[in-house]
Write a structure and sequence with these properties.
binds heme C; 4 strands; mainly alpha
Length: 145
Amino acid sequence: MFSHGKYLLVLLLLLLLFAAYNYTLYTTQSDYGTIQLSEKALQGEKHWRENNCNACHQLYGLGGYLGPDLTNVYSFRKADEQYLKSMFNSGVKAMPRFDFNETEKEELLQFLMEVDQTGTYPNTEATIKPDGWVKVQYKKETYEH
Ligand code: HEC
């Protein structure tokens, strides 16, 4: 039978292991990189929020489901900026007709373009590494605008 002292020792050991595990987990650099939106894209994000685009659309699968996921709409539509800009104000099907001016449309477009560069959704290129972590393919190309 273990004495109280030994129980305490085991408990202490477990606590130490827990602390070490958490330390490594939360201090290890991830390879996500830093995502920074440009000033223009931030303006676009503001329009995105203020007009509740997310109520119907998703980014990375999160949002409402009335409209399509727009994470990669920029490359999916082959960078057809004319098409995308016209979608903002056209009011097709269940999408309300917005009244963005040219600057606002450019900013929204910039937002969608930069979001597109952050990755691919859904990402079918993910592989599981031997240590259990998932390796995701990130986009490297940057678009000129
Ligand atoms: C009430 C729901 C709703 C809201 C709010 C909404 N949308 Fe949509 N949106 C839709 C639907 C539904 C479609 C699909 C229309 C179709 O099938 O032709 C769509 C399509 C689009 C498309 C075209 C996607 C493609 O691949 O052709 C873009 C771009 C888009 N929306 C952007 C926006 C932006 C930006 C906002 C916010 C300013 C917004 N939407 C707000 C419902 C919405």
